[in-house]
Amino acid sequence: MAADLKIKLNDGREIPAIGLGTWQSQPGEVENAVAHAIKEAGYRHIDCAWVYGNEKEVGDGIKASGVPRDQLWITGKVWCTYHTRVEESLNETLEKLGTDYLDLFLIHWPVPLNPKGNHPAFPTLPDGKRDVDHSWKLSDTWKQMEALQKAGKVKSIGVSNFSEAKLAEILPSAEVIPAVNQLELHPYNPQHELVAFLKSKGIVAQAYSPLGSAGSPLLQDETVVRIAEKHGLQPAFVLLGYLLSKGIPVVPKSVTPARISANIEGAAAAFKKLEQADIAELDKLAAEGKQRRFITPPWPVDLGFKDWKNPV
Ligand code: NDP
């Protein structure tokens, strides 16, 4: 069964390889999406974040599913304005989700924002740029993550949107190596070098926006469509199977019950059907001129990604 596909982390735990994304899933629709995913479609992994503004409703959906907490994998993320107060962020998340621990807690972005700025999530300076706390060290954020894991409030800890350069700011003083680095990964942004680096460090690369996010051109890409037709799959399934074949867990988002059900089964089917030649073709798309990121927030810092330079 698709829900049984799991990927082992460096702390010995196993993350269900296919989870449900919840970014841009609106209150009013996300409760039903989450309940459907768990109860009807067999998902056991829900990807959440404080900044999505829907943790309360995601929690309602989890509760409505009736599936016991210990059978679920719930991921949360500490937002940028909380780097100096990670436990406070976690406590807010736990309360809204209605649980007393997370399976995985991630640093959402390696960008500490001013906690006392002019907005709780996206503080800005008078020039309109985001109000970054340049004095804060990411290694001090990571220390707080380690303490929460020791206290048992989160089982696994990791990061998100960390380039090799940003990882170098936390790894030398880390007692715990991050279990996961959640990144934008799909055939237009495969980040082959970073994924290989993570593997060498025992960090699992996890894919966000695996379908290319809302309105994705990847679903119409001629290579993706041809491979899908060859195997009798939908393009979305090919994109998910492509990542799973590399040991990369995926968190496709949908609020459409039929797609939620189809994605988990289709991803597992594609994982079985895709051939090495298909993977090799998809691997080359970015290098053939299609390199593209879909998620590029205007951070006024250099994140250290080779393909993405922000104006600092
Ligand atoms: P996805 O790549 O998952 O794409 C979601 C879009 O695809 C939605 O518009 C959805 O529509 C549509 N869709 C879903 N299934 C299908 C299908 N079978 N056929 C056609 N269209 C489909 O985008 P996201 O950007 O949401 O990424 C997934 C998750 O990753 C997020 O929800 C979030 O949990 C996480 N994430 C993490 C980030 C981070 O910084 N760590 C950044 C971005 C995302 P509909 O809902 O209408 O069905």
Structure write-up:
This protein is an alpha/beta fold. It has one domain: NADP-dependent oxidoreductase domain (TIM Barrel, Alpha-Beta Barrel). It has eleven helices and nine strands. Helix 1 links the parallel strand 3 and strand 4. The longest helix is centred in the C-terminal third of the chain and has 17 residues. 48% of the residues are buried. The model has no long low-confidence stretch (mean pLDDT 97). The site of NADPH dihydro-nicotinamide-adenine-dinucleotide phosphate has 29 residues, from helix 9.
Features of the shown structure:
312 residues; alpha/beta; TIM Barrel; 7-stranded parallel sheet; two-stranded antiparallel ribbon; 13% strand; globular; binds NADPH dihydro-nicotinamide-adenine-dinucleotide phosphate; oxidoreductase activity, acting on the CH-OH group of donors, NAD or NADP as acceptor; NAD(P)_OxRdtase_dom_sf; oxidoreductase
CATH topology: TIM Barrel
Q: Give the overall shape, derived from the CA principal axes.
A: globular
CATH architecture: Alpha-Beta Barrel
Sheet having the most strands: 7 strands, parallel
Provide the spatial order of strands within the biggest beta sheet.
3-4-5-6-7-8-9
- CATH homologous superfamily heading: NADP-dependent oxidoreductase domain
Task: Calculate Rg over CA atoms.
Answer: 19 Å
Kindly state the percentage of residues in helix: 25-40%
Q: Which ligands are bound?
A: NADPH dihydro-nicotinamide-adenine-dinucleotide phosphate
What is the count of β-strands? Answer: 9
